[in-house]
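Annotated sample (chain length 155).
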Amino acid sequence: MTDHTEIITFTVPISFEAHSIAETLCQQLCHPDRARQVYLNTLAVYAVDVYLRCMGIETDWPASDSRNPLIVEVMDVADLKIKPDFRLECRPVLADMTTCPIPAEAQSDRVGYVIVQISQSLKQATLLGFVKEPSAQLPLTQLQPLDNIFQYFQP
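Output written by the structure step:
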């Protein structure tokens, strides 16, 4: 018997507000590659924040490390604080990627990892799936359905 489980995704249009937040966080960054990573991280966190709020989960993105200009200058983090006291990592990938790199600084103190595909136009983001514990190079074929994440938000 073959398992035909289909992973359901969730697509979010990326707002002007999200781009504005990303631009603000990138203003102080000198290296273009670092600025691009922070920009993509910000769009990924925005998309996960929208999804969780649609599902009735209370978030606190402004209190997340990913919104702190001093932290994003030195660390590759894309975390989203979930109330009361959880952190979820929101890692961006582009359309041609088959794995998602998870930096060392984002491999602890997280309730899980949501992988978000950012469109080439940067106008939409698709939440592809979730994993509880990542590897340094997470194959996208190992993602679990998004709704599996909700069991980890229980106090």
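Annotation: The mean pLDDT is 91.
Annotation: DSSP finds three helices and seven strands in the chain.
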